[in-house]
Design a protein that fits this description.
It contains six helices and no strands. It is mainly alpha-helical. Helix 2 packs across helix 3 and helix 4 packs antiparallel against helix 5.
Length: 166
């Protein structure tokens, strides 16, 4: 329990103070489901969660602490960990969706540039733009892989399922 408390305090020091994140989480879930961008909700959720690596450590500490205390406290700890893990998963899913969208747009632009490619009076500006798009696609692909890894890491927490409320 002390490790979880200390870890949570370390993460909270790194966070920008925000209001209750529940509305931002709902807005981000809605934006993700509709495939639209909501930068404000994304920033609020990201700010609330803080550094993802530090937050993962806090979640692991919370799970460990839940096994050392009795049912009322362990239920509260598990719920707290679950809410944070679900918000992290949502944030990773939203970020991946935005990256995939940006990648597809860049790929479409790259195809258009390649049709007006070298030998067809393309010029240096076009070749530079094509190289920039290639780099952006590669960077986005790498970021998607990082978000997928974060989701796998969240899955490894092996949280018990939510109990149904009658």
């Amino acid at each position: 329990m002390a490790a979880y408390r200390a870890s949570a305090e370390r993460v909270s020091v790194l966070q920008i103070p925000t209001a209750d994140p529940r509305l931002a989480i709902v807005q981000l879930a809605d934006a993700t489901a509709r495939g639209v961008q909501d930068s404000k909700a994304r920033e609020e959720v990201a700010s609330w969660l803080g550094d993802p690596d530090a937050r993962m450590g806090t979640l692991r500490d919370g799970l460990s602490a839940a096994h050392t205390v009795g049912p009322p406290m362990s239920d509260a700890l598990l719920n707290d960990v679950r809410v944070q893990a679900e918000a992290m998963r949502l944030l990773a899913t939203y970020d991946m969706a935005q990256l995939v969208k940006e990648t597809r747009q860049a790929e479409a632009r790259l195809v258009a540039l390649n049709h007006a490619g070298p030998g067809q009076n393309a010029g240096i500006r076009t070749e530079f733009e094509a190289a920039r798009l290639d780099a952006a696609i590669e960077a986005a692909t790498s970021q998607v892989a990082e978000e997928q890894e974060r989701i796998r890491e969240l899955d490894s927490l092996d949280l018990p399922p939510r109990e149904e409320v009658p």
